Amino acid sequence: MQAPEMRRDFHVPARIEPFQDSPAARDELVPFLMSQFQGEGACTAEQWLRRLAFWWDENPFAHAHSCRGWIMKDADRVTGYLGVIPTLYEDAAGSPVPALIATSWAVEEDYRNAALPMGMMLQRLGKEVPIVDTTPSPEVQKLLARWGWTARMDVQHGLLMRGAAGDMLANVMSFVPPVLGRTLKIVTDVGSVSSIRAARPGRCLQKHVTPEYLRWYLTSPMREHRFIGVVGPGGMLSSYLMVCQRSLKGLAAWAVVDWFTTSKTTVELHALVTWLLEQSLGEESPWAPFISLTSFPGEDLWSGLPLAHTREEKICHHHWLPPALKDVPLRPVLAEGDWGL
Fold it and tell me: Where on the tree of life does the source sit, at the highest rank (predicted)?
């Protein structure tokens, strides 16, 4: 979520008000977003309209909250916007919890003094719902720190080798591939998933997962994701990985950007990674010699796998929890917030 640097000069904006979503309002907003978000990854008008439809029309959790952000206008001209994407998390008991993803915060240069009031409007919603921001600018990061948001800035990155080199390393490390229960199987078609296993280990706050959510996520207009899951009888999902292609110094890798399991152990997750070591995700997919894995501090997700290399990486995850959930730990994943949406 980009946002502006604060300025000391004062230019009074006409008004800041809740964004009232409609086709006409989107048509008015898109040229402003195009002017503010340029350079690498810039979107055309058609792509912005596609993203807004993905966030607010096709999103199966769009009903979780009515807010769509705030817009600032000087007369009839858009001069600022701070958006939100409704979503659902689930609490330690597995009950859905409405939440918001902050996105696309931008203010024109002459109106930068209004960035703080817009941010405070978002902060007020934090009294009611969790809020996640995984793309804040450096200026916004300072604001979030001042307001008491939790920052997660470090992850452990591990690398697995595929093919003959990976087989040799696995033999050297005496790696024994995990074995799934006889009623379980690995699938790559999310259409095979009809339900989600109810068990939720760890008693934490985490993203709410439904078959509809998975199908929606895989249609993201911003990044191509691939699904690998463990299902049981009747298509009941118990674990999954979401992967996308990533370049590591010019070498292709499958990056695990999201994971989920209902198991108390990492056996199913490791079985999925092991499957990816040996299998292809489709004939149209170019060969990727590596698998990239990440874990947050305090997690022990990938130990036991034949990792060829590990190192620390910097990320930019921030979240705010309302008072009712302050004591519940949040289970983060790399693909959180609006990153990839």
Answer: Bacteria
